[in-house]
Amino acid sequence: MTQIIALAGKGGTGKTTTAALLLKYLTAHKMTPALAVDADANANLNELLHLDVRTTLGTIRKELKGDIPPGMSRDQYMEMKIHQSLIEEEGFDLMVMGQPDGPGCYCAANQYLAMSMDRLADNYQYIIVDNEAGMEHLSRLNLRKIDYLLIVSDPSARGILTARRIAELTGPLQLDIRQQYLIVNRAPDPIPSALQEKIDAAVVEANMQLAGIIPASEELVSQELSGESYLQLAEDSKVIQQAFAIFDRIFKSKKP
Ligand SMILES: Nc1ncnc2c1ncn2[C@@H]1O[C@H](COP(=O)(O)OP(=O)(O)OP(=O)(O)O)[C@@H](O)[C@H]1O
Ligand SMILES: [Mg+2]
Questions:
Q1: Coil, strand, or helix at residue 88?
Q2: Calpha distance 200→194 (Å, rounded)
Q3: The domain over range 3-254 is classified in CATH as 3.90.870.10
Q4: Partner of 60 for a Cys bridge, out of 64, 81, 105, 210, CB 3.0 to 4.6 A?
């Protein structure tokens, strides 16, 4: 069964960073094939992975409005285009959603898209969905279920409060979420005790599990500046060990 992992959290907290680190974890542990979906209209997961994007689903949806090759249904055409748009790498594929529909949406295209996505999903063991900030956005993606919702927070009182609100919104938004985790990112080490108390209260009261804390990392900053892929970070580097310990906690029962 395909497991869906979605990232949520306030803007700039580290969702895309966490998605890239998680992809490294899944490929390193042969928890593959994996599909990484960049669902941020301003796609940038590819940059952290150092991959070029050619086609997005937004472009395909637009193409579907025009003429399609004879002898093909729109449904088949869309499926073919989606397969062509996948960036295929060792152990994982990357798909970029691109711009959403503007006014005058060709709504049938969204239906074809959802159907094709459902069929495609079955090819993968894990699907990571990197989102832009905002839970409404996540609910618009119409995922059939989310096995793991990873809520990323910055190390501030307001950040933790936002994470908590996100966790509490999943019910009203009718998202089918199996487990939700809090990850506090870019944290000072050691973490101030007043902040730790807020974290402890938030996980209990908003029904999250604390997956762990990723400290502020010079390694991540310099890797991003160098333009090299996060997948190339050394496995014995501090930040990879810290991130992998978090993912071990989340996926322990799933490891082969
Ligand atoms: N643990 C960390 N240590 C140092 N820098 C970090 C860390 N995590 C993230 N950053 C940096 O913070 C910035 C924002 O991170 P990222 O893009 O992952 O956030 P985001 O939640 O995806 O943002 P958005 O809401 O815009 O999609 C990036 O420049 C990233 O390199
Ligand atoms: Mg992002």
A1: strand
A2: 10
A3: no
A4: 81
